[in-house]
Amino acid sequence: MERNISLVSLLCFIIFNGCLVLEADAVKSQRSEKLKLIHRHSPELGHNPETTLGPPKNSEERLKQLVQSDKARLHAIKRRLGVVGKANDRVEFPFRSAADLGFGQYFVSLRMGTPAHTFTLLVDTGSCLTWLKCRYTCIDCSAAWYGRRFFSANESSSFKSIPCSSQECKTMDKASTLPNCPHPNAPCYYDYSYLDGLNVAGSYFNETVKFRFSNGRKKGLEMTMGCTDGLNNPKRFQEVDGILALGLDPLSFAVKAAHEFGGKFSFCLDNHWIVKSESSYLVFGKEDQVPNMQFTDLLTEESKMTSLYPIKVTGISINGTMLDIPSYVWDMTDKGAGGMIVDSGTTVTHLVEQAFDKVIAAFEPSLSMYNKTKGNLDYCFNAPPAEIFDESIIPRVAIHFEGGAKLEPAVDGYIFDDSKGVKCLGFVRVAWPEMNIMGNLLMQNHLWEFDLANKKVGFAPSKCMLD
């Protein structure tokens, strides 16, 4: 969804703006840093039967939840871009999906504070403020929060509030940083509003985040994030603790961490539809040598208006035949029309009508044996059960990028079970002028590398298994 104040799209239910800062004297290891990516079906996330975000009861409810969570991400994020990178360090964080909670995104487990505690954060490539549910300045926080945990600022010896009179406060997002400063040592407050009605409020702070290097060594780095002690719809976050922001913005976690660890980060999106306990990693720094990695340029110069990741598409082919889609559909304008965004926070791929209609027309001859029907997506059809459904009749899609790179997703990246006897094509039709958005289901089963120093995005097929 987008923020009212800056047209920002939303991860799952929300996208948050803000900034996260790494200390300039951060450790210079020759290793990288990983965060574990948590699968949406992972039992690690647990489930509170009293909450409203429990696992979908069936495939229809599941797809409906994913589609609803995508509706807020139909517009471009209108924010400036700016990226630098250096060094050859590498750090890793475990990374998993969590569809059992009804989210269409991925998660990391992050340890922070002194003593350190673990928090589960949504991974968002479309925002720049990392924040947690937090108790600090609120008078009665107990009534405000639902869920398993929150960050208790007063119990951490490394917590540092950012005063409203400080220069650091003045560098925060001006559209959302509140001007009130009752006394010099009062916290630097923010207040974010989103088009879906969600409102997030709190204060900025610095805190130590625990990084684990790939050689096993650990290091604490001080970062700036948001202590959210006010949320107008806390039930949305009963199962998760906040947001880890990876937006293409100079002050985001991704840009700052990549700056310290080799100018790049990467992650592998495992199969959304398969429940498994294995994880992959969100990696900051140089990834191990990956065969068949293809690259295309990030359009940071062409678009100064988004904190997401714009790339140049040259076309879409079906069974090897390029579709007759007008070239202007893939040209990003300074007003947010056209172009394509790679967005891990969107689940289903969104195509403007000129592209969507051509794709559907190319599919229809192969699906003519099935009757069209209503479903959660724009094109659904009656189909036999999975065990007898002939997947070989489904046309193969390829997305072609500038420079010759070509993404060939698996069929389950664009054919979804909607309900019993109903399947849908995994594309959403949006009106022109809008922006095309590549969702994470089309990206799954691939390793994605965001080379910020060289302004490139790379991808390669991968099983997304841990080392």
From TrEMBL:
It comes from Gossypium arboreum (Tree cotton). PANTHER family: ASPARTIC PROTEINASE NEPENTHESIN-1-LIKE, OS07G0603500 PROTEIN-RELATED. GO terms for molecular function: aspartic-type endopeptidase activity. It holds the Pfam family TAXi_C. It comes from the Eukaryota. GO terms for biological process: proteolysis. Keywords: Aspartyl protease, Glycoprotein, Hydrolase, Protease. The keyword Glycoprotein applies. This is Asparticase nepenthesin-2. The keyword Glycoprotein applies. Belongs to the peptidase A1 family. PROSITE patterns: PEPTIDASE_A1.
